[in-house]
Amino acid sequence: MAIVRWDPFRELATMQDRINRVFGEVYARRPEDDLMLRGDWIPPVDIYENEKGEIVIKAELPGMTKEEIDLRVENNTLTIRGDRKREAEVKEEQYHRVERTYGSFTRSFSLPGTVDSARVSADYKDGLLTVSLPLKEEAKPRQIAVTAQIVRQLTEVNASVTIETR
Fold first, then answer.
1. Domain range for residue 90?
2. Sheet with 128-134, edge to edge strand ranges
3. What three-state secondary structure class fits 105?
4. Most exposed among 47, 72, 127, 150, judged by the fewest C-beta atoms under 10 Å?
């Protein structure tokens, strides 16, 4: 018999999901409840710092074109907006199940003052938006050489030296 760790929070989350299904998601937390996340859906993101010293934001935006994505940097805030539309060739009554989310979205991220907003770049490939936020030169870590000075004090010694030769 395998030993399984009991996690009371997992059971609470499962119970909340069941209750939400019973009440038709009426009391579920909605994305519009959070001021930082607005829209019909919220694309997931990863944020990390790469080996070049840039902050990188990767956002999953499948099924969109680059023209449908609005990316702006204003007042040290990066904002990603867009609108993912449902496929027009499939009629509403033809669907058996719809699990993907459609509609507008907005994601905003506060940028540190060390980001050089004039050099921000973005690339969109295979449904993944990659935003590179380079740091200002003065914010990048740099190696500082340490110099040391050795001060020698010579003392006068009144001593005679005798050299013997053989």
1. 31-139
2. 45-49, 54-60, 128-134, 121-125
3. strand
4. 150
